[in-house]
Amino acid sequence: MHICVLGQGYVGLPLALRAAEAGYRVTGYELDRERCEKLAAGSSYIEDIDSTRLQHALRSNTYTPSSDSKDLKGFDVAVITVPTPLKDRAPDLSCVREAAHTLAQYLEPGATVVLESTTYPGTTRDLLIPLLEQGSGLTAGRDFHVGFSPERIDPGNAAWRLENTPKIVAGLTGACLQRVKAFYDSVVETTVSASGLEEAELAKVFENTFRHVNIALVNELAKLGHLLNIDVGNALDCAATKPFGFMRFTPGPGVGGHCLPIDPVYLSHHVRQHLGETFRFVELAQEVNERQPAYVVERLQDGLNRRAKCLNGARILALGLAYKPGTADTRESPARHVIELLKARGAQCTVVDPHASPDTGMDIRGELNPAELANADAVLVLTDHAQFDPALIHTHASYVLDTRRAIPAGAHIEHL
Q: Which one from 4, 95, 176, 259 is the annotated catalytic residue?
């Protein structure tokens, strides 16, 4: 069988290689020619994919990267894993539309098209299917199969990978579901069938909306705890001992990555557009979490003021640029927003991140040393990478604002 995966990013490349390893002939379609050239040379730009794994797939001729749409011809299964960002605070589905137009040219009877890109409920039925039908002259559910299977990739997570994370699958018809499920059963350990396309789409955006709302809740709690002089970290430790009915979330500088800052907005926008209603929890959570980077800067400025120092001209050592530990992923990272705000207020920022790639647009150092810690007016922990030694920071820094609660308590250590 010929499998085509459109988009070779954090979602598409792992899926393409996994399908190749399952014995399929896979075309990894990527419009970015520079990315395609790297893949063809056996160089992975996705940190969760080792280059040796990519090279093995290339040598075995089961995986071929391509930016030529003609290589999609004759596909049995095509999976769309293109980005769905926000544009002017609204869903931008231009990449999905482009992928649908491209696939429609090569769509043949009996083929299957699956959308994995995160979006609002109704996208597969109301957007993808009409574009495929118009471009091919075929009818979905009769001439070809269509499904939705939301991605659940968690960059940097070695425990839960594509193959062992349960995969939600859905189809336009019962026969479509069978085809979609059969494909994913061959590449992952567990599939979970949704009752329909919209249910699968809603499940994905709700998963991240749940996290988004609870992170906003605990961020608000941390602010109030600070004003009330209550150790919120200890309170959360205590609450987390309850063996039922509680899930721990911890405060931080905001939310980042390809999901949390975006997926809930898709849901609230869809509700507003189609029902004229507001999803108040989502919109409030968005407001709280978007405000968090500015709150971090305010707390840092207050800490410097108490030490008779000014933020303007202060030497700030910012630890971490990625949105989460153990990864180089800086998409929508709150750390980036914090650093930009600090620079706008005149602070001299030095960024240290052992994972960040050179193309971040910032001057970044990979290692932390005692001299830099001692020389800084403030050390700001934005990402709790394992490479940042808490004892080293605790010993050599004169003032630390720790947004991740990674450094042991002390008179010179302030937790968010």
A: 259
